[in-house]
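re: ur msg from earlier - yeah i can do the zinc ion complex, just paste it... oh wait u already did. ok heres what im feeding in:
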Amino acid sequence: MAQKWKKQQKYKKKVNGWSVFFGVLLFCGACFLTLGDLMKWENVPTMSSVKDTVFGPNTLTGEVENDCEVHFIDVGQGDSTLILSDGHAILIDAGENDQGRVVVDYLEKLGIKKLDLIFMTHPHSDHIGGMDDVIRAFDIGKIVAPRLPDSQVPTTKTYTEVLTAIAEKGLKMTPAKVDDTYTFGKGVFTILGPMGQYEDLNDTSLVCRFVYDQSRSFLFTGDMESPVEKELVQSGKILKSDVLKLGHHGSKTSTSKGFYQAIDPDYAVILVGDGNDYGHPHQKVLQTVESNEAFVYRTDYQGSIVFSITPQNQFEIRVER
Ligand SMILES: [Zn+2]
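and the outut:
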């Protein structure tokens, strides 16, 4: 009898052990599936792009000097650029995770309550890290980002946090499509890239050109690197711009000579952190810029940099430091 009882206990222990094991396995499987589902672009809430989007009257409650201003915000080693165009506010990227508050404060000081459009160039943390804070702090019109294949959709905490903020606000992402335009009064953005799918996330960067009053032009390139720059030149699209935000914080992997000469900017802006670990901006890039006689502005030296366009379409440039 005692032996039978022992056997039963042994059996129970075995059963308990197996149920715990299977339970854990089931739980992990469920977690993996849920996470896997979230990390597919198909499951990111999206809407289809409209070729030419015109934004109606808006919104800007704060005082700005001129009708169009482009603010390259100092977020250390990262990108964040605010464009104000005839009463509309548009943000390209929002710096690292710890810079979200900096960007929110900067926008609030300008009296901004609504961002009509957010461009997320690519899902690296130095570009979208602070975006969850921004999305939560303001009314948001539209969010445009490159469509990524499932294998490239990041599983990082940073990206998940941004997706969560988007979902909380009931927003959707619009995929960036080449040649789509977004119009804000006299200011028009044209999407130039990404032109395809690339292995390196930097190359998937959303690239856009902004032209105000058919006169002043800016090119924003995210972290796109040289081989894709070459493709963009070969595409025959208009690249010539007055102001270029240098690709990838002035890394030597971007700003190839042919690309730079196709843009031929009067001003080159480098968004870069003071004493960063990457050695950005690279000497070779600075030489390319200087040999083409452009003025260079850097956030590590000058803080935030503002290009304001006067009614006569002249630049007034001011720096924070
Ligand atoms: Zn970057």
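cool cool. The chain has a mean pLDDT of 87. ping me if u need the other ligands too
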